[in-house]
Amino acid sequence: NEVAKESLRSPICCIMGHVDTGKTKLLDCIRGTNVQEGEAGGITQQIGATYFPAENIRERTKELRPDAKLKVPGLLVIDTPGHESFSNLRSRGSNLCDIAILVVDIMHGLEPQTIESLNLLRKRNTEFIVALNKVDRLYGWKTCKNAPIEKALALQSKDVVIEFNMRLTQVITQFKEQGLNTEIYYKNKEMGDTFSIVPTSAISGEGIPDLLLYLVMWSQKTMVEKLTFVDKVQCTVLEVKVIPGHGTTIDVVLVNGVLHEGDQIVACGSQGPIITTVRSLLTRHPMKELRVKGTYQHHREVKAAQCIKITAQGLEHAVAGTSLHVIGPDVDVDEAKKTAMED
Ligand code: GTP
Ligand code: MG
Ligand code: NA
């Protein structure tokens, strides 16, 4: 039952949770960037996206499982804000992901937007992994940079392990109160019914190998059908943005299919359907955040899954959160206009 690597697209993973639990910092830790410190007030106010190629994931997880076979080309991670006023952005992120990371601060346990995020994921039956973050804040924690979590825990004093287990048990109980079974991932024998918890530190990197490997292995094992590449374009508008030198652009998540320069597209507009032609397809470099200033890579075509900035004329009234359609040889323009406005 081997599936060729080329036939699987990258899983789209949304990272969600209460404000300041460390979502952006976790991505910074994996990317080796410093996006979080550049945010106004340290608060994420936009959806972000980063592409992690399989080679980087391989490198980051080789100590944990040297022989693991990664069958997906990479992982596309969508960062969302945890502040209560951005529930529309959490909803947008959770609507397009294949799998999610629900981040919980080990010192705080479940918080209001943890539960809000949890309910968004449950509504769509989305699989998720709990990252129990900030383990380095346990009193007396010994840093074990980027280590697999079992290795890091084995190095801790008895008191640290006792506090860790107590806080873990509290979080498991809080999930139980929400009607959800959870267990630390390496003891979880009923994956699928019981959700897995991966302890992490976004500051010193403990547990990051476990989180990455689990995400990839779990998606390629249980979502082969969903992740099998198909030609039909499936694409969602994440943000509409004015960029100096480019005019109004749209940031889209290409879930399936291929987009080309010169493609005729139809977007949903606040004043009616927008028909235009793709002028350029831009991406950030792998391991870089789309929403942060930097240089773009230009492409003739882009294959899913990927996050792309599209420049084209007439995008001023495009509506974020709606689908983008491509007019192909056998697609009727009027029909495409109608479907575009159905969102
Ligand atoms: P919003 O996007 O605004 O909801 O927050 P967030 O969940 O992205 O959290 P963010 O990455 O902004 O981190 C919030 C604060 O927690 C920052 O000061 C981080 O440095 C700190 N932080 C995040 N992860 C860790 C961790 O693992 N350990 C410690 N000690 N601090 C952390
Ligand atoms: Mg953030
Ligand atoms: Na924050």
From TrEMBL:
Positions of the Tr-type G domain: 8-224
Compartment(s) of residence: Cytoplasm
Origin superkingdom: Eukaryota
Family indicated by similarity: Belongs to the TRAFAC class translation factor GTPase superfamily. Classic translation factor GTPase family. IF-2 subfamily.
Protein name (database record): Eukaryotic translation initiation factor 5B
Residues of the full protein shown: 433 to 775 of 1035
